[in-house]
Amino acid sequence: MEESRKNVFLRVAGAVWRGVEAAVRILTVIFFLALLIGLLMLTRDDAPKVPKTAALVIAPRGMLVEQLAGDMTDRAIQKLTGQEVPETLWRDLDEAIRAAKDDDRIQALFLDLNQMTGAGLSKLQVLRAAIEEFKTSGKPVVAASDFYLRDSYYLASSADEIYLHTMGMVLLDGYGRFRMYYKEGIDRFELDWHVFKVGEYKSAVEPYLRNDMSEEAREANLDWMGDLWRSYLADVAAARGMRPEALTEAIESFVELLQEADGDTAEMALATGLVDRLSGRDGVRDRLIELVGEDEDSHSFHRIGHDAYLEALGDKRRRHPIKGDAVAVVVAKGSILDGSQPPGVIGGDSTAALIRDARQDETVKAIVLRVDSGGGSAFASEVIRRELVLAREAGKQVVVSMGTLAASGGYWISTASDEIWANANTITGSIGIFAMIPTYQKPLQKYLGWRVDGVGTTWLSGALRPDRELRPELGEAVQVMIEDGYRGFLSRVAEARSMSVEDVDRIARGRVWSGQDALELGLVDKLGGLEDAIASAAELAGLDEKYAVRYVEKEPSFGQKMVHQLLSRAADWFGPAETTIRGGGIPPVRRSLLALVRRETEMLSRLNDPNGVYAICDCEIE
Fold first, then answer.
1. Phi-psi region of 184 (alpha: psi -120 to 50; beta: other; left: phi over 0)
2. CA distance 342 to 496
3. Are strands 434-439 and 419-422 parallel, antiparallel or unpaired?
4. Residue 555: Cβ-neighbour burial (10 angstroms; 0-12, 13-18, 19+)
5. What is the per-residue burial (b if ≥16 Cβ within 10 Å, else e) of 576-597?
6. Secondary structure of 89-137 in the HEC alphabet?
7. In angstroms, how far is CA 88 from the centroid of its own chain?
8. Residue 202 known to be catalytic
9. Helix, coil or strand: residue 197
10. pTM assigned to the model
11. Annotated catalytic residue 340
């Protein structure tokens, strides 16, 4: 009987093994076939070509960002599988628009804004300047969308002709900052959420201490958001030939104006002068055919997208030489976390390594740190700041260019510089730190009857377990550490800005400022964009007009490049066809409850400062 069972087992095991071998052989054949097809695709000469007459199509997808999130292989896989997180590099749009101005083949600029979900005002203002410069060529700019929200309408407002779908809407909701507050829930579940902070304006921890926004946070938030909104209204009103007050009145009278239009949001937008024409997508297509001609194959207008246009231009797109003495640009975008992090996240080790690469490159004479971050780990921030100190000690000029957001830890890493540039509407400051230690021993005891007990050789043994009550002396120690960390932050800023610690403290304490206010307070040196900062860095380094500009990024391996190309080509070949005028409906005006909760929990789970000390700005706008 035993022998029979053994034989049965061996036969089953053999069958399973043969099945595994067959599957491996099949997968191997599929892999090599895919590789062969990919190599054939790579050898095709299908580089984009610019038509003799065409419209340059600017069709941003998702958010406009400083740096795409994830490495190139991850992005290619997401694109192929339809799970791509929509993001667009704003500087690619800027570069394409500026290059098209003097290109005789580009006869019009088309802003297709259906899939754009948002952007910081500082980025929008740079693109608006590029559009205005393009218009000096005499070529028309046409904007179209089914729906316009605040950020997409800002870009559209610079167009010569703004089209809105006959069933569309323009919704200018201003700037807001709304958060969930958890204090009642924390109390209801009898959690102990220990918070340690310095500064009455350090509002990042308020949701764990209160059920509503503090008066200090309301004051500070309305101050910097008011600066942004006034700039927004002034720019849009100037572009549309209106008074800013007229825009404000239209927003305040939204209901009355909608009633006058019998509930037709598109007609209301036309009546208030926000758009020029109401039309379906066919009408927009016909207008563009009228401007640049009809493509015989597609029966649409001659067109080229910004990605294809930049690829077609090749080296001609470059404003600066490739070789020679250079200004290196290091992008610091996203939350600041300890260790090595992928693009789109600032890693203490990975970002410091990029700065070190620039420092050790003899052809690099200056470094521009492009900061777009609300902060994160204080420890990682110091690792990055120290690397910038070493770069300056090595004789490199260091200039910081602040993007949409450079606050808290984002300001910390900016202090080791020869010069700081910000946009007038950059969100900066928030000089302060905090720590949080939640414990949940009470609900464990009350609802599950679980208790934790044990012994240790010192009073610190097991002191940081979240299922044990936090000892008062440990809480006192953490607060002392936080206060010391805050003093260290103040001293770094004071030394960098040639201010007294007392003067820095008066404008710090976690308070957020606009770039314009920061200039007046001495937190930044000059107002301007990335190109201004690069030019200033070159001047400080004594470079002539033919200096090179290099973005310092982690160099992908040959294998990663090949896989990226294979997957990207496959996605282009087999993915969904691109329509002439994109649809997509109105983007969600607010995140869902589930998405909000997920975002909060993901943020908490990612925080990895080894000391548990954070410099984070609560200044994300909606």
1. alpha
2. 29
3. unpaired
4. exposed
5. eeeebbbeeeeeeeeeeeeeee
6. EHHHHHHHHHHHCCCCCEEEEEEECCCEEECCHHHHHHHHHHHHHHHCC
7. 9
8. yes
9. strand
10. 0.84
11. no
Answer yes or no: same fold for 54-177+215-315+571-587 and 318-554+603-616. Answer: yes
Q: Rounded to an integer, what distance in angstroms lies between the CA atom of residue 401 and that of residue 355?
A: 15
Residue 421 confidence (pLDDT) above 80: yes
Q: Evaluate whether 543 touches 20 at the Cβ level (below 8 Å).
A: no
* Burial environment of residue 258 by CB neighbours within 10 A (0 to 12, 13 to 18, 19 or more): middle
CA 350 to chain centre: 18
The residue type found at 277 is R
CATH number, span 54-177+215-315+571-587: 3.90.226.10
The residue with greater pLDDT, 387 or 220, is 387
* Residue 125 near residue 226 (C-beta atoms within 8 A): no
Weakest-pLDDT range from 187-201, 210-224, 525-539, 594-608: 594-608
- Confidence band (pLDDT; 50, 70, 90) for 609? confident
Strand, coil or helix: what is 34?
A: helix
Assigned token pair, 224: 């910097």
Residue 277: left (phi > 0), alpha (psi -120 to 50), or beta? beta
**Helix, strand or coil, per DSSP, at residue 47:** coil
- CATH number at 318-554+603-616: 3.90.226.10
- Per the residue annotation, which of 279, 381, 408, 514 is the catalytic one? 408
Question: For the purposes of burial, counting CB atoms within 10 Å of the CB of 429, is it exposed (0-12), middle (13-18) or buried (19 or more)?
Answer: buried
Catalytic hit among 202, 333, 365, 396: 202
pLDDT above 50 (res 550): yes
Query: Cα separations (Å) of 57 from 41, 60, 73, 307, 311?
Result: 26, 9, 26, 9, 14
